[in-house]
Task: inverse folding
């Protein structure tokens, strides 16, 4: 079953995301530098919660995976 959207639905979807992005930019502009730094510090501190060494793959392996995905026919 194909699930295609019309051009108008796609345009409406894009307009909604543009509105969301604009609202987010305004929120970030209104945010104080102190709050921005506090959020950055929280993000940097949270990296210790994840064991990235186990999840990291070699660059060649990642490229190969992307190449396989690109070759998959789009239905």
Result:
């Amino acid at each position: 079953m194909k699930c295609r959207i019309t051009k108008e639905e796609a345009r409406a979807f894009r307009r909604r995301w543009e509105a969301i992005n604009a609202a987010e930019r305004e929120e970030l502009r209104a945010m104080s530098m102190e709050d921005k730094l506090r959020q950055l510090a929280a993000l940097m501190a949270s990296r210790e919660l994840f064991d990235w060494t186990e999840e990291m793959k070699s660059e060649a392996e990642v490229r190969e995976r992307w190449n396989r995905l690109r070759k998959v026919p789009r239905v």
